[in-house]
Amino acid sequence: MMSGSVVDNTVSSGNSSAAIPTDISGQILDLDEDDDLEVFSKDTTLTDGSSFNASMQTSPASMINQYKFEEDADTKDIFVTVDNPESHVTAIETYITYRVMTKTTRSEFDSSEFEVRRRYQDFLWLKGRLEEAHPTLIAHPLPEKFVVKGMVERFNEDFIETRRRALHRFLNKIAEHPIFSSSEDFKIFLTAASGELTSHKKQGPGFLSRMGDTVKAVAAAVRGVRNRPQEFTEMQEYVEAFSQKISSLDKVTQRIVREQKEYLEELKECGPTYALWSQSEEELAEPLKNVAGCVDRCCKETEEQVKNLSDHLIPVLHEYVLCADTLKMRNDLDKAEDRLEWANNALKSDWTRWQKVMRTDLRSAFVDTAERNVSYYEKCLAVWESFLHSQRTDAEGNGKVDFS
Amino acid sequence: MEKKPPKKLQAKHKSPRSINFKVIKLCSNHSRNKLKPEALILAKSEEQLLSAYGKTNGCVLTRDAGLGIEYCDSLDQNLQMVEKGTSLLKKMEISVAEAEKRTGKNAVNMQETYTVYLIEMRPVDAASEGTNPVPDSLWRRYSEFELLRNYLLVTYPFLVVPPLPEKRAEFVWHKLSADNMDPDFVERRRVGLENFLLRVASHPDLSTDKIFYSFLTEENGWKETVFETGFQAKADSRLKALNATFRVKNPDKRFAEMKHYGDELQSVISQLLRVRARAADRLYGVYKVHGNYGRVFSEWSAIEKEMGDGLQSAGHHMDAYAASVDDILEEEEHYADQMKEYLFYADALRAVCRKHELTQYELEMAAQDLTSKKQQREELATGTIRTFSLKGVTSKLFGQETPEQREAKLKMLETQIEEGEELVKERNAECEEFVKSAWVDIERFKEQKDHDLREALISYAIMQISMCKKGIQVWNNAKECFSKM
């Protein structure tokens, strides 16, 4: 139930334990349930009837559980990809758009395949909307606007590619989220033509944003629960510790990249030194040139390994640093308010879900890194083994050594 | 007839360095038996032996059948030295077994701490039979080695005299200490000194030198014996002459080229050592930072339930990875030492060329002197003064000499010319002899250098392979742990 008239007049307030005024926009207090959240449920039949207990099927928490069940049953029904960055030049500005392709079997969508172009601003908008609408849920972070410390140019190829990957991950996280993926804004984002999207964005604060205000207020109440259930406290403590650890990992990985780069700088001088030496030699010229070649090839592999770390592991770690920061902030305010247990449960379910996703993400990121490192060493191994082999065949050929 | 099985060699010995020769014997036995490398089956004691050898020599000996030949390749250097078979090495096994700290008063009566090295000589036959007679041994310090080498330099100026390990640690990367008292430095010096002795002992000419032999056998009184040879005087005059600038009129092209090569070799190896040291420094950093992963994973695992175990064990592997760099870089130090030996050899080569130049110069000076004396005689005899000389001018100013004076002068000149001709003949012979001997030794050196450096490059490749294999293992293990997260 929200301010004014719009949706869901079918909500009956008759049986609720507390009287719910029709217009609650100005009121923050004393709500056992937040009817507003129900508005976002697509299935209005769920709002039929009765009391709004946490345990009831009608509660958002149970809805999350329902979706969770569906997720577990492996029915991913929406697939999103972000690719094909292109640069656009207008009189006012230059910017990059990305192609966003969607394949889905969901009935809410008019078609099963969509292709649109979106720019970073659009993603920002989407995230903002989702956070407004669901302040208690955990949204995946977006890549930052620009990287200040590295003085990375906005249109640098590597930067664009890194951003593209991050945007891809962001949309997929939303698509996999039971509640976010049902968002109207998300649907519009995926399907609307550019003009449509612009005008939708321009729409006045409308019921959705007013909804947002209310919900924000409620959320503030959620944050300020005095008698927090123990799990809530545990979550806080965990988030604090997790945030520290993931930040450390991010820093350690960045440090590794720095050290690798410096190692590479020195290694790059080795090959040419061997090559220079080979010019003064006769018999030794060939093996020296060979070694020079091997060192150079190892340099290339090292370069690629550094790039892999930067392109794959660091962005994921970084996203979880941002995630952890966001999670920490949710626990900041300490307003003494009441036990909105259903809200806590909604949070808790999403929290459980988030932990699972985090575990999957980080596990695969580290497994991936380990695999790449193995591959790096395997390639270098092959380089040096080929050198040994050449020396042996040479020696045999020259009749110098009898290998029999 | 039954094939004699390869002799079982004792891996245990008081001196790890005597393993050298045992292993050489092992290899020569195997290669003489013409066993295929893949069939290089070793008895357990032999494996232990090779493993111990590998550790002390800093070469990686792998068990792979395909790389079986590496057993022999890395040892080839020493094997060659023995097989070259100077009579000395055929009889005696030489090693620098230990190092010890001593304190004493030095020349200016100040207390000093220094290191002494134990030289052991053992008859060859005894070792192979497995009996362990007490070796002849004596202690020497680095300065005595220096004295020996200086003596050899002066006595055999036409030979490329093997170099000593560096006096002070150079081309160090930060983790290594540049301190002469550091145990790692002392250990590497011990290896270098042994190498020096083996090099001298395997040289066809140097190995027969009596002073060298007494260096190995007479602890007391050796110094006096050396000084008695009077080499110092020769050394001083030589040094003076070498440091003076002189131009040779007809430089020998071959020696000029050799000197140029020596310059280039010295320059490029220095560069290589510098670059390598810096790279080693950086590589150390990369590996050690991974240790932080270990720490953070461990801390993180404490707050996780399902991920805990995977993280914890992954952390251990990260710690192992970080620790593995110490061994890797220690092995690389041996490679650096091999390069350093040839850096200093380059200097020895240049010294030979320089000394040849000096010999040439002295010949030219003698010849020049002779020519001018002959000219003087001619002028005196014919009375014509073709060359401007002070004598000529003064005689013009103060009157001609008496016939008696002229006679006397002529006679003196004749003697001088005779002596001069002798000198030229001598110097010429010296020069020719020098050129002949030097060139033989330079050829020998070239072959040795090509062989040794090629082996060094091969052992470098083997090291890299070993490092890669370790990396593959660690990261595969880590991957398994991560997938259990």
TrEMBL record, chain A:
GO terms for cellular component: early endosome; phagophore assembly site. The keyword ATP-binding does not apply. Keywords: Protein transport, Transport. One of its GO terms (biological process) is autophagy of mitochondrion. Transmembrane segments: none annotated. It comes from the Eukaryota. PROSITE patterns: PX (PS50195). The keyword Transit peptide does not apply. InterPro entries: AH/BAR_dom_sf (IPR027267), PX_dom (IPR001683), PX_dom_sf (IPR036871), PX_SNX7 (IPR042130). It holds the Pfam family PX. Residues 76-197 form the PX domain. One of its GO terms (molecular function) is phosphatidylinositol binding. SMART domains: PX. Belongs to the sorting nexin family. This is PX domain-containing protein. It comes from Sinocyclocheilus rhinocerous. The gene is snx7.
From TrEMBL, chain B:
Residues 95-223 form the PX domain. GO terms for molecular function: phosphatidylinositol-3-phosphate binding. Gene3D superfamilies: Arfaptin homology (AH) domain/BAR domain, Phox-like domain. Keywords: Protein transport, Transport. InterPro entries: AH/BAR_dom_sf, PX_dom, PX_dom_sf, PX_SNX4, SNX4, SNX4_BAR. GO terms for cellular component: early endosome membrane; plasma membrane; SNARE complex. One of its GO terms (biological process) is positive regulation of autophagosome assembly. It comes from the Eukaryota. Belongs to the sorting nexin family. PANTHER family: SORTING NEXIN-4. This is Sorting nexin-4-like.
